[in-house]
Design goal:
heterodimer, A: mainly alpha, 3 helices, 68% helix, flat, B: 27 helices, 72% helix
Chain lengths: 77, 685
């Protein structure tokens, strides 16, 4: 019985992982990276710095995609 | 035993692909099922991915899973982030897939489906995917630098400037041609114009929402936008039928051209969060969704291909575009087989996000195979509609006239019998006044998609909805490309002008920005206006020029890849990039030469100009011109186009010469001379 419980657990985990993958993928398609990854990165490498808020992060990414001097938002034919 | 287990399943895939190709190649006279085409394509992709991309990864690149990628070395949580392979694949695919692979194959269908299909498959395996993969690899090994910087570093400063200038001109032509596709699709179509126009207030609303009300909620705001868009399509039909609003949203091509030019200028100056970014969400998600929907639709409906495998127009007498199979088929289908623009994407954000070197095979090579599959689906969509309807929609107005009767007579005379009642009925089915001479590929694709999807969902009554959905989806991402392209072009132009006058480099100050934007919009606006007023229908004239420029950029990118292979002292594998480079040079130089010097005025710009210049000297007005002014304009446009073709040819010749010199130098050197970043090994975990 525990076997089925464990496998349904892992199935749910896998579903959650798949879901996150789809959401991350959709966000990255429009140039929005993962905020959690960014916060974790700052916490690990620059513990003295305060990371940007989610709102600041969103604007930062928007500008990085289309903003002044940047061509990375350019779409192909 | 091991070998059988390892290669056995792939041998089966190969056998299935060969069988499907055999069906496609031998079935004559009766329509074949589109699934054979799809199965053949997928098998070719699988085999190419399993064997050829692995060969390149192991021998040419020698990808090293232990080597640190820029995402790890410069990890900042923002621009450089190690990213899941599948997530990055989605990002890369969304960036490379656009209108090109949808339009090119539709235009190429005038020669039948077989030539286009074979070129899409051979081109992607040997050229397109190789280019994307190689440039991604090269950029990744150099901290994610851009194509221009890579050419400057590996080939020299002068080739770098030439490439930058060439890229700008190519972008101008691209934007003009894409904008023309939109104009051609919306002209005299109140339903289409209303829905596409409605995207502007919808995007503004979304922009304000995502800025101030719920910042960063991309999914939420996209769903709101999507619902509003669908409402716009549904009510667009009523607006179009309304006695007041219908005519109010009916515009001629020239009116739409000026609106687009004005729009392009304003949109490129507005803050990005207000219009560009929210529209980008809509167009990206709608694009991916529609591509998936079309794939499911084709598999589910399994439609038959009505277009013959090969038409008589392989000799170059076709009404859609001029020129014979070689070289013009190979430039008409650019994206989907090989597209130089992908080199800009592969050296853009993607290389900065690669987690492990081995991932580049899936992202670079695999991503392009996926785009090629989109091209195959577009070809299928164009070939499932009646050939008579196809030629009615894609022939220049001068040939088919404006009434169903004249079009039916003209297209039947071409050898594709179609009745006037069928033409009128098709227009009615898709909710348009007329489908005659709606060139540009988008309306044809929309009819094909509506045909396929409505067979699955909604039947005939939903056909008008699906038609306008397809038009909206194409117009939406073309307009996003026009926005983003104008911005990118403006920065490129400021870079270039900065070489002459350094004040231009200041992208933050208003003066230079406005001037550069105006120059950029003016440049593509000029070609757009020329195309829309072109009596032959601009696609006939300008699409080949776009194809030549795009393929030439691919030749430039592949030349860079060849030079890098020589510099790595792996010249025995250089055939991987030399073969596609040589083929692209043969095609584009022949096509370029013919567009300039061909004595046939249908193909050669100069002979066409001469014919009209001679008539002007004799005081005569030649059809399709209506006045002496028209005559002068045609001559002037022809000469501009010829000059542009000369420039593209010169550009590619110059880069190839520099490339050969760099290869010879690298060959003579007794050591590795490529300029990779230090191969710091990632710490073992």
């Amino acid at each position: 019985m525990t076997g089925t419980a464990a496998s349904s657990q892992s199935f749910r985990d896998r579903l959650r992982a798949f879901n996150k993958c789809v959401c991350d993928g959709a966000r990255l398609m429009v140039g929005q990276g993962d905020y959690g990854t960014y916060v974790a990165h700052i916490a690990k490498t620059h513990p003295d710095q305060t990371p940007m808020t989610e709102r600041e992060f969103f604007r930062n990414r928007e500008n990085a995609r289309f903003g002044v001097g940047n061509t990375s938002g350019f779409r192909c034919c | 035993m091991g070998a059988i287990q390892k290669h056995g399943p792939w041998a089966l895939v190969g056998a299935l692909g060969a069988a499907a190709l055999a069906v496609v190649a031998t079935q004559r006279g009766e329509p074949i099922n589109a699934l054979w085409v799809v199965v053949a394509a997928v098998c070719v992709y699988l085999i190419a991915y399993r064997y050829y991309s692995l060969y390149i990864a192991d021998n040419v690149m020698r990808l090293d899973p232990k080597r640190e990628t820029p995402a790890h070395r410069h990890n900042d949580g923002l621009d450089y982030v190690p990213t899941n392979k599948s997530v990055l694949f989605g990002h890369h695919f969304a960036a490379i897939a656009g209108a090109g692979p949808l339009v090119g194959p539709v235009l190429a269908a005038q020669m039948g489906y077989l030539p286009g299909m074979l070129w899409i498959l051979a081109g992607v395996v040997l050229a397109g995917a190789v280019q994307d993969f190689m440039i991604l690899f090269i950029s990744m090994r150099r901290d994610g630098r851009s194509l221009g910087e890579l050419i400057r570093a590996e080939l020299g400063v002068i080739p770098g400037v030439i490439a930058l200038f060439g890229t700008f001109m190519i972008m101008v032509i691209l934007l003009a041609v894409l904008a023309m596709v939109v104009v051609k699709a919306l002209a005299e179509s109140p339903w289409g114009t209303f829905t596409v126009g409605a995207t502007i207030p919808i995007a503004l609303l979304m922009g304000l929402y995502a800025r101030y009300i719920r910042p960063g909620k991309v999914g939420e705001v996209s769903i709101i936008g999507f619902v509003l868009l669908m409402a716009a399509i549904v009510y667009g039909g009523q607006i179009a039928a309304d006695p007041y609003w219908g005519p109010a949203f009916t515009f001629t091509g020239v009116q739409l051209t000026w609106m687009l030019i004005g729009y392009g200028f304003v949109a490129a100056i507005l803050p990005v969060w207000l219009l560009l970014a929210p529209r980008d969400y809509l167009s990206t998600f709608l694009k991916i969704g529609t591509i998936v929907g079309l794939a499911i639709g084709i598999v589910f409906v399994a439609p038959h291909m009505q277009m013959p495998a090969m038409t008589k127009f392989v000799d170059g007498t076709g009404p859609v575009w001029a020129g014979s199979l070689f070289p013009f088929l190979f430039i008409t289908i650019a994206c989907g087989a090989v597209s130089g623009f992908h080199a800009l994407i592969s050296s853009g954000t993607t290389p900065k996000l690669v987690d492990n070197e081995l991932d580049t095979r899936f992202i670079g090579y695999g991503g392009m195979l996926m785009e090629s599959f989109v091209a195959i689906m577009a070809l299928v969509a164009a070939c499932v509609i009646e050939p008579g309807i196809y030629f009615t929609m894609n022939s220049p107005g001068g040939l088919v006239g404006t009434t169903p009767e004249s079009a039916a007579a003209a297209v039947t005379a071409l050898g594709f019998p179609v009745g006037a009642d069928v033409i009128a009925q098709t227009a009615k089915d898709v909710g348009e006044h007329s489908i005659i001479s709606r060139t540009g590929g988008a309306p044809t694709l929309a009819v094909g998609m509506a045909h396929i999807i409505s067979s699955a969902i909604g039947g005939k009554t939903m056909m008008a909805f699906w038609y306008h959905f397809a038009i909206l989806f194409e117009a939406l991402f073309i307009l996003t490309a026009v926005d983003a392209g104008t911005r990118a072009g403006r920065f490129m132009l400021q870079d270039l002008l900065g070489l002459i006058s350094p004040t231009f480099k200041d992208t933050a100050s208003w003066g230079p920005s406005v001037i550069a934007t105006a120059l950029c919009v003016g440049a593509w606006g000029f070609f757009l206006h020329q195309g829309v007023t072109d009596p032959l229908g601009g696609i006939y004239t300008l699409w080949p020029l776009f194809g030549i420029s795009n393929q030439m950029l691919a030749a430039v990118a592949l030349t860079l890849a060849t030079v890098v292979i020589f510099k790595m002292k792996r010249e025995r594998y250089a055939f991987v990039t030399i073969i596609p480079t040589v083929w692209l040079c043969i095609c584009t130089l022949t096509a370029g030469w013919q567009k300039i010097f061909s004595p046939d005025p249908k193909i050669g710009f100069l002979s066409h100009a001469d014919r009209f210049a001679k008539a002007i000297a004799e005081g005569k007005v030649l059809a399709p011109a209506k006045s002496m002014d028209d005559m002068h304009k045609i001559v002037f446009n022809d000469r501009i186009d010829a000059a542009l073709a000369v420039m593209f040819v010169g550009l590619v010749v110059a880069i190839v010469v520099f490339g050969v010199m760099a290869c010879v130098k690298a060959y003579r050197a007794d050591r590795w001379t490529a300029l990779e970043a230090d191969p710091t090994l990632a710490p073992a975990e």
